[in-house]
Amino acid sequence: MWPCRSQQGEDARLYSAVQALSDFCCSLGLNVPTGKDSLSLSQQYPDGRKIIAPGTVIVTSGAEISDVRKTVSPVLVNDKNSSLYYIDFSFDEQRLGGSAFAQTLGKIGSDVPTVKNPEYFADCFNAIQELIKKGWIMAGHDISAGGLITTLLEMTFANAEGGLHVNLHDLGGEGDDLVKMLFAENPGVVIQVSDLHKKELREYLEDNGIGFAKIAYPTPKERKMVVVKDEFSHEFDIDSLRDTWYRTSYLLDTKQSMNGMARKRFQNYKKMPVETKFNPNFKGMFANLGLNPERWQNKEAQACPKAAIIREKGTNGDREMAYTLWLAGFEVKDVMMTDLISGRETLEEVNMIVFCGGFSNSDVLGSAKGWAGGFRYNEKAKKALENFFSREDTLSLGICNGCQLLMELGLIFPEMGDKHPRMEHNLSHKFESTFVSVEIPKNNSVMFGSLEGTKTGIWVAHGEGRFVLPEEAARYNIAAKYVYDTYPGNPNGSDYATAAVCSADGRHLAMMPHLERTIFPWQNAYYPFTCRKHEVTPWMEAFVNAREWVKNKKNN
Fold this sequence. Notes:
By secondary structure, the protein is an alpha+beta fold. Helix content is 28%, strand content 19%. The protein has helices spanning 10-28, 100-104, 118-134, 147-157, 178-183, 198-207, 238-253, 261-268, 318-328, 337-342, 369-376, 379-390, 401-408, 539-555; strands at 42-44, 50-52, 82-88, 137-143, 163-167, 188-194, 213-219, 224-229, 232-237, 306-311, 331-336, 352-355, 395-399, 423-424, 432-439, 455-462, 466-467, 478-482, 498-502, 508-511. It starts with 9 loop residues before the first helix and ends with a helix.
């Protein structure tokens, strides 16, 4: 975006910026398919004041990836037997012009970093890709706004424990400007590599002509970052700086959240790390769960249990769920509400139905209330659902919007009648989309029974996800709970930190979090580094349990 009409000389600056971008892309063999500028970023007020936003080149890039499982996390691994290496992509001197540091001083500067050698830039990029393929990079982070010191701090922020010892001796010569070393935003990366590979790493980078410097190592037992350069030494309090870093988000949140939830988030965000605890018998491999992701290639007919995805206008979690069911060993069919309303589908041959997440009928009447009306006020759809739930060889699962539907229709605890719990607005009164920890208590759920004791992460995305459970917890057969009772670990304020409930017989499960979006490790915002070779997460076991239950019912 560029204020071309606002200030003399901006047209020329825009031309220069586009020319530089074009030359750089041509040197790398990349194309820019399109571009746009606003031509004006000014605002004039009645008192004569005129505000001009600075011109900014915004570039969005996209590329194909060879293996989504090779994602590198920016979160520092607290392994003392590892080291952090700085790799500069710019081939330029460290400069502070245009940096976040300069802006904090009320300045912009004119001496800005650039990429001196596009060929070297490409060599650095390709070298990093090769290191990722080799599996040597434990964590990595780009150097951008805030420079090297911000990069290193951000790598520690997501942890609740551990810090860094940083020695900049190898990064520059004696007497080099420490401020530039820490705050310059020259393009580059910081990577963490196990000391087991340090010799191989050096040989590889040197053989490929890539400059590097060993700059730090983790200190797992100390929650601070120590920076040393020549005679200079300073300790940074990580948690204090993390609060400073988070404060802007907090101030924005105060304008969006109700009931003091913004303050609670600010107080608790770093006290609620994602917790994981897997059962000893969970191996995380396809074979251990009897899964074959290539079974579609098998031309031989197989008798598989049948599952159906029930969709309404606005459902958006159906594809992930359909694949998850298929991977678990189900034959999956797509059923629209119009199929049930018209009588084209009766669910007679189906053993499991799933109501997925989304915004059914735009939820204009409240979450899932319009969807529920589709069943209540259409005889054929109502009859098909009643017949399905009356059978003893069936399972059902409602996720998010589907959970709201099952609760609205009173299908989880039919014995409660009018006292059946409903879902209400999150206490924050805003849409919550985050990655949280849940635990599986002792339960009789068909899907979750074997997961008892498991703690792991999962995605949530909802506006009305609060379970209001006025009676004692034992009445509700709670099948999953948020690990933390309070916000934001309990993202909606549910009673008893409830994330899922199931029917008395364990066959029908309603939950707000999206387990279908979390079945592969690479889908998770956090997954234990020690389990990085897992092919699936514990959530996949729930669907395998469903498959086996249906098979046993059919065989008995």
